[in-house]
Design brief:
The complex is a heterodimer of chains A (about 700) and B (about 500).
Chain A: H1 2-22, E1 48-51, E2 57-62, E3 68-75, H2 89-99, H3 107-117, E4 120-125, E5 130-137, H4 141-153, H5 159-174, H6 180-193, H7 205-209, H8 213-223, E6 229-235, H9 239-249, E7 273-278, E8 284-292, E9 294-295, H10 301-312, H11 318-326, E10 333-337, E11 339-340, E12 346-354, H12 358-374, H13 379-391, H14 400-412, H15 419-429, H16 432-442, E13 449-454, E14 469-471, H17 488-505, H18 508-512, E15 516-527, E16 530-541, E17 545-552, E18 555-562, E19 565-569, E20 575-577, H19 580-591, H20 594-598, E21 607-616, E22 619-627, E23 634-639, E24 645-654, E25 657-671, E26 674-684, E27 687-699
Parallel strand pairs in A: 2-6, 7-13, 7-14, 9-11
Antiparallel strand pairs in A: 1-2, 3-5, 3-6, 4-5, 8-12, 8-13, 10-12, 15-16, 15-27, 16-17, 17-18, 18-19, 19-20, 21-22, 22-23, 23-24, 24-25, 25-26, 26-27
Chain B: H1 8-16, H2 20-31, E1 34-38, E2 44-49, E3 55-62, H3 76-83, H4 96-118, H5 125-143, H6 150-157, E4 161-167, E5 172-179, H7 183-193, H8 202-217, H9 220-232, H10 246-251, H11 254-264, E6 270-276, H12 280-291, E7 314-320, E8 325-331, H13 340-351, H14 357-365, E9 369-378, E10 386-393, H15 399-415, H16 420-437, H17 441-455, H18 460-470, H19 473-483, E11 489-496
Helix pairs in contact in B: 1-2, 1-16, 3-8, 3-11, 4-5, 7-12, 13-19, 14-15, 15-19
Classes of the chains: A alpha+beta (about 700), B alpha+beta (about 500).
């Protein structure tokens, strides 16, 4: 390695001579002294605005440079309009409008058609507005425009595409703690707006599970109306012809007399907090600091814009210069006092820094915010910020897409059409005093909420030096089975039924005498890719020891729970600890074994409720809801005639996350005076997952001393 | 309404045209908007006129990337890219003589510090601490003699937007957009940047780069990709991370960075594209005025190491507290090989868009993945590279489930010819996508530079579309059978390690 370095160094020395001799002494113009010609005129088309009979507001700009036609729609609906217990409904509705196709053309047919033409149609519903987009070669517009109109007006919402979106939504929930920066900003948003706020709440497994096709249909009916829709079209067309085409395809969409409700406000009280999320597999922390921001219709907005530029504009703002360029604390450092159109934005400063400089970086960020209030802002900083804004103003007009989207945005949020020009005029007037005044008025570095994601074992100082630390639990909630409120009455009935079932299984005395069970079984594991049959041996020693040995083609895998400890032994004898959540899940499974549950019917805290009589494949069953002490409830179904348990159902934790697990128990046989189901077939989320056939059961077997011994 | 025929029109006709002779003609028409010239020092300029709006994009493409690094200085191409924003002897300099002396001192202390650190457990802790303190003081002292953000500020102040640079395995690209009347500012700044850069605040910027590396390390996919590439390449430097190894970043010096600059930043190794509202004659004048003074560099040899044929499948299994991911990479040819274009069509059919085979099978039908697609030219295209298939399994599925499903689709491609419909869809899309890409000065500049440097002629941009239109179903089957075989691949996956905090 050294030698390669030397080689390059020698070469470089040789070249250095070359460079020196090659450079002429002639001085170039100083870049600061350059004089520039005036900017060529920019031709900025004003979009034509047309309101169709059914209320659609249409903006059009002709643009003949490319033989393409583009359309962008804005619909007055957002995730803010969905019910809290169905968070995610708006996004799923927006996606399935397109993927599910219309009543006349399936989503897959639309895919084929569009991709054959190199065209695109997309729909979506975001936090505060809905959108649609179309891009097509002009020769194909008569094929593609009707598709766009059709999916907006007549979406079919087929079940399989809804399920596809729900799979995607659940998967993204399961992945949401993989990226530390996303975690930091997500939790910060929740801290500012409130975890339940429409502006910060997040989807959960339970809210996605709760969404049905009827919900999508109703949501679409409630919000998708022509008089709640704006369309912007630009490209290679004749304006009059395009108005006609659009009137035509949307002609059947009837005006609803719709008026969009106002967005909810935000309650915010300035205070300080330090919030920590532990993530121990990373060496870099995400630090986010801030408080509530403001609105764009605030007269101080223009001065705040200039302030933003001084604090954090591009490569020359204070944050970038001091935190990155001078201290080298971060690659990514950014911040903004953000102002939204209709609900308050957020003020934040943030960076990603190595664990060892977490607190130092947090202090540096805060220091820069404080300096905005205390240190004078120089004329030079002001001019740089203003020049930068004014000189780059031309870039607001260099594409038709920007021009037309801006006009729609202003109208959508009720801002004047000349808001951008007004911004320019007002920014030109901003003075050092203005910036200083708004910094003092709007920035409150002594009342900030701080979020840190990282590994505190490596921090330079404990976070407590910044204030009392609140640890945020980001564990993803696994929905428990819904438990109706327990009444005296249904508990009494539940108990009575359970007692009858205990008798049917073998009697209280016989069950109480069971100390351990040894069972061998043939289990077929069913996966979408195929099936695999393995031998399984299970040894349970009550109350809290369990060993499961799976004989797989790769070798034996052992899973052992011994009280608070749990571990797994792989085919190569490699031992790994089982994390607490999985251990608890294994202990929970124990409660769902009838032989275990029935021997502890008197356990403190065990709740048994009768849910009523149901039918399973034509046979009457009594449905019980069992809540073991310290665990989530599950359902147990007893054959109304024999009183034997025939099915159990509940949430189960698998390696891939929580699932709805069901097991049907049959082929009861007597062993040592107790009835055991010799056949068990299970499903996860409705899909077959395994079939187990018991081969042998032994009650109170002799236990080797080291049966549950912890690994070395 | 303003309707103007512009430079785009002939380009579009050329792209859409199907027959040979007409095409050549339209390319000729398009060429009228392109001016290409090379200075005596070997620096090539390409000007693409577009006077629709008074703005333009400038791009300097340096034909050097992390692939050109040697062991021990990995990350250098990228570190230099950062240093190229720190000013020059005339930009940001306040007292050059004192500054050089101060930087010299920083370098010397760093050398001592590095030597002391190399002693490992025998290092003298007191000496280490005192050197570290000296190092901090010296860095601070050197900063007093310069304004290192002068270049950024000058661009910012003139209304420049999108200022940035990227380093890849193959290339280093510097770019931004300007109001067109400020064109001369670009010439003044950029010529100085590559004539006499001053690598000021080197060690602080290196710390910044280390943070950039940690960001990538904090991402599960970032970690997996690095493991995959280092496994797939045992000889060729495509296997080394562009961000560099942490220990190399820790030990690299300003002198090494300056050596790297002198070796790879000769004028003849640079190509400059100006796309937008620019007058070629004026550009030529400015080019001579500002860039004639740049020296040519020493001859640069391509990377001589050739990745040997892979003899056996390689596998990376990363147990990680994050959700599963699967990547499957197959070695393939470089951009100038005749089979390369077949991969573009193949990848489009199997792995791009809603009708692609992977999306249809894994996402729509089996619902075992939330995303499944493929891409080519990874991690570069100058040297033989890889075609990669990847999927993010959906919540109840593992990397193994999705791997099997991807493998089934690859087998289908190997065993059956793709349909005519699929083939024609891919060809139409290639054309339309190109039109979309070209609808911006930046898109055009990037595409033209890429083709010009790697193939020797920006016209390949057109030719590549022609070549795509000639690909047949037999070509695809042949290529799939030749390259997409198990022993030629590296499979990398994340297997989820359960933990309370990642549930």
């Amino acid at each position: 390695m050294r030698s390669t370095r030397l080689k390059i160094a020698t070469l470089a020395l040789m070249m250095a001579g070359m460079v020196l001799s090659a450079v002429p002494a002639a001085a170039q113009k100083d870049y600061r002294e350059l004089e520039f010609p005036p900017l060529n005129d920019i031709v900025t088309p004003t979009p034509t605005r047309v309101v169709l009979d059914n209320g659609i507001i249409l903006y059009l700009v002709e643009d003949r440079r490319l033989p393409m036609i583009n359309l962008s729609a804005r619909i007055g609906v957002g995730a803010v309009n969905e019910p809290a217990d169905k968070t995610g409904l708006a996004g799923i509705t927006g996606a399935v409008m397109r993927t599910g196709g219309s009543t006349t053309m399936s989503g897959d047919e639309i895919d084929e058609t569009l991709e054959g033409l190199g065209a695109a149609v997309e729909t979506g519903i975001g936090p505060v507005s809905g959108s649609a987009f179309m891009s097509v070669l002009k020769d194909n517009v008569d094929t593609v425009l009707p598709i766009l109109a059709d999916v907006l007006m007549n979406p079919a919402f087929p079940e399989d595409k809804i399920e596809l979106e729900k799979v995607t939504a659940r998967s993204s929930i399961s992945r949401r703690n993989d990226d530390p920066t996303n975690m930091g900003f997500r939790e910060f948003r929740k801290l500012i707006y409130g975890a339940e706020s429409v502006y910060a709440r997040q989807t959960e497994y339970a809210t996605i599970d709760a969404i049905t096709r009827d919900d999508l249909v109703a949501f679409h009916q409630a919000w998708l109306h022509p008089d709640n829709t704006m369309l912007g079209v630009w490209g290679d067309f004749d304006t009059d012809e395009m108005v006609e085409k659009i009137s035509d395809v949307f002609g059947g969409w009837e005006k609803a007399g719709f008026k969009r409700p106002e967005l909810p406000g935000v309650d915010y009280t300035f205070d300080s907090s330090v919030n920590y999320i532990k993530k121990d597999d990373i060496n870099q922390s995400t630090v986010v600091i801030g408080h509530i921001g403001g609105l764009m219709n605030n007269p101080d907005y223009f001065a705040l814009r200039v302030m933003n530029d001084i604090l954090s504009g591009g490569f020359s703002g204070r944050l970038f210069r001091n935190v990155r360029s001078e201290q080298g604390l971060a690659y990514a450092v950014f911040g903004i006092y953000s102002a939204n159109y209709t609900y308050p934005g957020i003020f934040y400063v943030a960076c990603m820094t190595k664990s060892e400089t977490t607190v130092q970086a947090a202090r540096s960020l805060l220091h820069e915010v404080e300096r905005m209030k205390t240190d004078e802002i120089t004329e030079e900083e002001l001019n740089l910020a203003k020049d930068s804004f004014l000189n780059s103003f031309v870039f607001n007009f260099d594409t038709r897409r920007e021009i037309i989207n801006r006009q729609m945005t202003y109208e959508y949020y009720g801002y004047p059409q000349d808001f951008l020009e007004k911004t320019k005029t007002e920014v030109e007037k901003v003075t050092v005093e203005d910036v200083q005044r708004v910094a003092r008025k709007y920035l409150q570095p002594d009342k900030v909420r701080i979020v840190v994601v990282g590994n505190d074992e490596d921090f330079d100082e404990p976070l407590t030096v910044l204030g009392e630390v609140n640890e945020i639990d980001v564990t993803i909630a696994v929905p428990a089975m819904e438990a109706p409120e327990a009444t005296e009455d249904d508990m009494a009935r539940g108990r009575a039924l359970l007692e009858r079932s205990v008798e049917a299984l073998g009697g209280k005395e016989a069950l109480a005498a069971v100390q351990a069970v040894h069972r061998t079984a043939e289990v077929t594991i069913i996966r979408p890719m195929g099936e695999m049959a393995i031998g399984v041996e299970m040894l349970v020693s009550f109350p809290d020891k369990m060993k499961t040995t799976m004989q797989t083609p790769m070798g034996d895998i052992e899973m052992v729970v011994n009280g608070e400890q749990a571990w797994m032994v792989g085919p190569m004898g490699d031992t790994q600890p089982v994390p607490p959540q999985q251990r608890d899940s294994m202990r929970e499974e124990l409660w769902r074994l009838p032989v275990y549950l029935y021997g502890r019917v008197d356990a403190e805290g065990l709740i048994v409720q009768h849910l009523g009589q149901e039918e399973i494949e034509g046979a009457a069953v009594e449905a019980l809801l069992i809540t073991p002490p310290g665990f989530d409830p599950f359902r147990l179904y007893l054959d109304a005639e024999t009183m034997l348990p025939v099915k159990k159902a509940g949430k189960s934790m698998t390696q891939q996350g929580p699932v709805d697990a069901e097991t049907v128990m049959s082929d009861y046989r007597e062993v040592g005076g107790i009835q055991f189901p010799f056949t068990e077939t299970s499903t996860e989320n409705g899909n077959p997952s395994s079939e187990a056939t018991t081969q042998n059961i032994e009650i109170n077997p002799e236990l080797p001393e080291d049966a549950f011994a912890a690994p070395e | 309404m303003i309707v103007r025929l512009t430079r785009y029109f002939p380009l579009v006709i050329a792209i859409l045209a199907l027959s040979g002779p007409a095409q050549a003609q339209d390319l000729a028409a398009f060429e009228k908007n392109v001016t290409e010239f090379t200075l005596d020092n070997g620096l090539t300029f390409i000007v693409v006129e577009n006077h629709d709006a008074p703005v333009l994009t400038v791009l300097t493409y340096a034909d050097v990337g992390s692939v050109d690094e040697v062991k021990g200085i990995t990350g250098m191409a990228h570190v230099f890219e950062h240093m190229a924003f720190k000013g020059t002897t005339t930009i940001g300099a306040m007292d050059l003589e004192s500054e050089y002396a101060a930087m010299q001192k920083v370098d010397e202390i760093f050398d001592d510090l590095r030597s002391e650190r190399h002693k490992g457990h025998q290092a003298d802790p007191e000496r280490l601490a005192s050197l570290e303190q000296d190092f901090e003081d010296a860095k601070k002292a050197a900063r007093e003699f310069a304004e290192s953000s002068a270049m950024d500020e000058a661009i910012d102040r003139s209304g420049g937007t999108g200022l940035n640079a990227t380093t890849s395995r193959d290339a280093t690209r510097y770019f931004y957009s300007l109001p067109s009347n400020k064109l001369e500012l670009f010439f003044a700044l950029e010529s100085s940047r590559f004539l006499d850069p001053v690598l000021r605040e080197f060690f602080v910027e290196r710390d910044v780069v280390m943070e950039e590396r940690r960001m990538s390390e904090s991402s599960p996919t970032g970690r997996l990709v690095e493991e995959m590439l280092s496994t797939a390449y045992k000889a060729h430097p495509y296997g080394e991370p562009t961000l560099g190894h942490m220990s190399d970043l820790e030990s690299m010096t300003r002198t090494e960075a300056m050596d790297f600059f002198r070796r790879y930043y000769g004028a003849d190794n640079l190509t400059i594209i100006i796309s937008g509202d620019a007058d070629p004659a004026h550009v030529k004048e400015l080019a001579h005025e500002y860039f004639d003074r740049l020296p040519a560099g020493p001859p640069i040899e391509p990377v001589e190491t050739v990745e040997p044929p892979q003899l056996a499948e390689r596998r990376v299994i990363m147990e990680d507290k994050s959700q599963p991911v699967i990547l499957m990479g197959y070695h393939k040819v470089d951009i100038n090989h005749e089979d390369d274009v077949v991969f573009n069509v193949l990848s489009d059919i199997i792995g791009s868009g809603r009708t692609s085979r992977l999306y249809t099978s894994l996402v729509k039908e089996q619902k075992i993945a939330v995303n499944a697609s493929s891409f080519t030219d990874f991690p570069g295209s100058k040297y033989p590279n890889m075609m990669v298939f990847f999927a993010f399994p959906s919540k109840d599925h593992t990397a193994a489930d999705t791997e099997k499903a991807i493998e089934e689709e690859i087998e289908r491609i190997r065993n059956e010819e793709v349909t005519e419909e699929e083939l024609s869809r891919a060809k139409v899309r290639a054309r339309v996508n190109l039109i979309r890409q070209l609808d911006s000065n930046m898109g055009l500049a990037l595409q033209m530079a890429y083709f010009h440097v790697l193939t020797g002629d920006w016209r390949e941009l057109f030719h590549s579309i022609d070549q795509i239109s000639e690909v047949t179903a037999e070509d695809i089957k042949r290529v799939a059978n030749q390259y997409l075989v198990p022993k030629n691949r590296t499979v990398a996956s994340i297997v989820t390690l359960e933990d309370e905090s990642t549930e």
